[in-house]
Write a structure and sequence with these properties.
- 43% of the residues lie in helices and 12% in strands.
- With 259 residues, the protein is an alpha/beta fold.
- The chain has one domain: Dihydropteroate synthase-like (TIM Barrel).
- The strands form two sheets. Strands 1-2-3-4-5-6 form a six-stranded parallel β-sheet, with helices on one face. It has a two-stranded parallel ribbon with strand order 7-8.
- Helix 2 links the parallel strand 2 and strand 3.
- The longest helix has 19 residues.
- The protein starts with a strand and ends with a helix.
Length: 259
């Protein structure tokens, strides 16, 4: 899954694609490098990000989705939003998947919208909002608490009619750096609920703060953790750097297939 942010304040500058020609060029490059899914976001979810209105988010993402659908064939477009109104408009505009960082907590109509469109739904773990999520990082048992949250939200989604659910444990969301690495260490326990697993750690602070570098310098660290996640059973990698992520997948596949 290639990340295409149409926001002015995403944490990694190279993922911000506001100009139409630049957006299209980046999307085509990502597909040529091996992306199967393009994730379009118009609301930055970095810690402390500025809150933007539904109208602004719609103005950012709908033209981008329509452009990509008109110019690129046979690609899965995902809408990265926690708002049902944005998800509904995006799915009508050509997106086919919903990526919800709130896991259905921010908008009680989100599951209904995903079900109405028969859209696969990415259910992520987070507490609170991007503005305050790092104020709530105390857990009785990190892995059990995340899986308990998933079990509750999965049931709500299924009851609403959602058929296809993908889980994202939410690295960097309501978690300290040490908790992120505990989660990475025990990632196989995220398979207990028998849903596909998406991992999004691309150039995040858990990498560059641990290494003492910047987001721009964290590609090697990202590839290292993506490889570990794949070995732990991750099925989707959400990344800024598609070529390098695809190389991780191809080389591990060669090992497991014996050449």
């Amino acid at each position: 899954m290639g990340i295409l942010n149409v926001t002015p304040d995403s944490f990694y500058a190279e993922s911000r694609k506001e100009n139409e020609s630049e957006l299209l060029e980046t999307a085509k490059r990502m597909i040529s490098e091996g992306a199967s899914i393009l994730d379009i976001g118009g609301y930055s979810s970095r810690p402390g990000a500025e809150h933007v209105s539904t109208e602004v988010e719609l103005e950012r993402v709908i033209p981008a989705i329509k452009l990509l659908c008109s110019e690129i064939q046979d690609v899965i477009i995902s809408i990265d939003t926690f708002r049902s109104e944005v998800a509904d408009a995006a799915l009508k505009a050509g997106a086919v998947m919903v990526n919800d960082i709130s896991g259905g907590q921010a908008d009680d109509k989100m599951f209904e919208v995903a079900a109405k469109h028969s859209a696969p739904y990415i259910l992520m773990h987070m507490r609170g909002t991007p503005q305050n999520m790092q104020d709530d990082t105390t857990y009785d048992n990190l892995i059990k608490d995340i899986n308990y949250f998933f079990s509750i939200q999965i049931r709500k989604a299924l009851d609403a009619g959602v058929k296809d659910i993908i889980l994202d444990p939410g690295f960097g969301f309501s978690k300290t750096t040490d908790q992120n690495y505990e989660l990475m260490q025990k990632l196989e326990m995220m398979h207990l609920l028998e849903k596909p697993l998406l991992i999004g750690i691309s150039r995040k602070s858990m990498i560059y703060k641990k290494l003492g570098v910047s987001a721009d310098e964290s590609l090697n660290g990202t590839s290292t953790l993506n490889t570990h996640a794949l070995n732990k059973g991750a099925q989707i990698l959400r990344v800024h750097d598609v070529k390098e992520a695809k190389e991780c997948i191809d080389l591990l596949s060669a090992i497991h297939c014996g050449g």
